Amino acid sequence: MTHQSHDVGLAYLDYNATAPTRPEALAATLSAMRTVGNASSTHRSGRDASSRVDLARRQIADLLNCSHGEIVFTSGATEANNLALRAAFATGGKIVTGRAEHPAVLETAKALTAENSGSLILLPVDEDGLVDMEAFHAALATNEVAIVSLMAANNETGVLTDLAPIVEAAHELGALVHTDATQIVGRLPIDLAETDVDLLSLSAHKFGGPQGVGALFVRRGISLPYRPLLFGGGQERGWRAGTLNVAGIAGAGAAAEAARKALPAEAAHIAQLRDVLEASLVEQAGDCRINGALSQRLPGVTSITFHGAPADAVLAAMPDVAASEGSACSSGAPSPSHVLLAMGRSREEADSTVRFSLGYATTSHDIDRAVVSAVRAVRQVRTALAVPL
Questions:
Q1: 268, 316, 329, 389: which is the annotated catalytic residue?
Q2: Residue 97 above 50 pLDDT?
Q3: 329 labelled catalytic
Q4: Residues paired with residue 200 on neighbouring β-strands, in sequence order
Q5: What's the gap between Cα 284 and its chain centre?
Q6: For position 386, what pLDDT does the model report?
Q7: Which residue range or ranges hold the Aminotransferase class V domain (predicted)?
Q8: Helix, strand or coil for residue 331?
């Protein structure tokens, strides 16, 4: 099977926004779309649909090394984040999260605590994007924390969070731990038998599944009554009502299985390509800065500030490269990246930062094309703005 699933004339380096659909996922999705049954129906077509859902649940559980009964299907990580925070906050207590979290966590936390701002504690990060652990322990010391929500890997910089000490400290004081693992699942190993988080969110389209499907891991045995966002037929053990998206779920499962089998080789290959991309851009573009803890990042992500070259202009000047100004979820927003601002970058620096994100189908040709185009674009923009080269 070929991995080519995007414009052949485009160097696609925007995997953190969405990954090209894996051929295995496409095949599973199309196959499921040919079945008529509702997964809740008891007749033969319904049982066929239900079996596809069961298979996908096991495939995703295998990727995370958890029980298939701990997987709740959702429309994506945004919904999963909302479900997790809503359920935990309803038990009473504060929400602790970081200033560099994805808006799906930050905005949910702010909405839940809108009537009591003291119920939300936002943790600062250092210049490398790492959570301030002193502030974290100070937050826990209040003994009033319901849930700690910190992402496993940042969507803009790729910076990884060491979850083990966070989980240990939170559990000692009776707080739950949720992680938005959207960017790490299928890209680096995550073993839920060892990483003792209580709740975890993911989206299939980040690791090659279809868009519009994700999951929430809910660890068996935790004291957490579900608080559904949608009421109806009681599917997914009451966590999420509504007819299951069988085709999307089947594709998600197939993508999870493919990612699990290829993960070690893919991660090593992607990291090598990312290093070539960074080294070439630093050498040839000049006056740039790589953002984030260099030794604690996802293998395929680089956030680069091209000083004196606004990112929107750079991206417009390299139409044969797909990259991003930061989070695709906030593209077009007038404000600069909250992640980079939290790391102490100036507004000008944040506005001049491009995120390149690589994945399973990235080739050395993609990297070569991106380097040539990005260097040309940066020089063109700086010349137009009379920035010394």
A1: 329
A2: yes
A3: yes
A4: 179, 217
A5: 30
A6: 83
A7: 12-369
A8: coil
